[in-house]
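Narrative summary of target 7.
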Amino acid sequence: MAEERRGRLRALAAEVPRIAGTVLGKHGFGEAQLVAQWAAIIGEDIARAASPEKLSFARGERRDGTLHLRVAPARALEIQHREPVLLERINAFFGYRAVARLALRQAPPVSRARQLPPPTRQLETGERSWLESRMADIEDPELRGALQRLGEAVIGRKP
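Modeled conformation, tokenized:
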């Protein structure tokens, strides 16, 4: 049975907590996707001014937590004013009331350049053909495109 699984692809969502948990767990993030999708959740403009630092909950709880943000001092008042809207967006992402309040720390936000993965190399013709053959049966163009980009990033990682 284990031999059969080795050559098969596994769902990425099943692997993200294991991979990211070690790194992000030290900082209080059990939810790696919050960091990965931050700009999409709250919008590009706010994402440039604020970055998540830590998500904390009462002992034994996974709801009504506090999301700690690093916020550019010039934008702190605006973000504080927009807290209800931001909480609504964040909780919509989680699908339940995971965050009840924001705790703002006035400090330069973590630059998005440091959050981005390292650049990848161009795929060779054989690698690109192999990847495209794996995507051929996927009917949804958005899903196919996302998986194509993911595959290119994984295969094209520089050693």
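The chain has ten helices and three strands.
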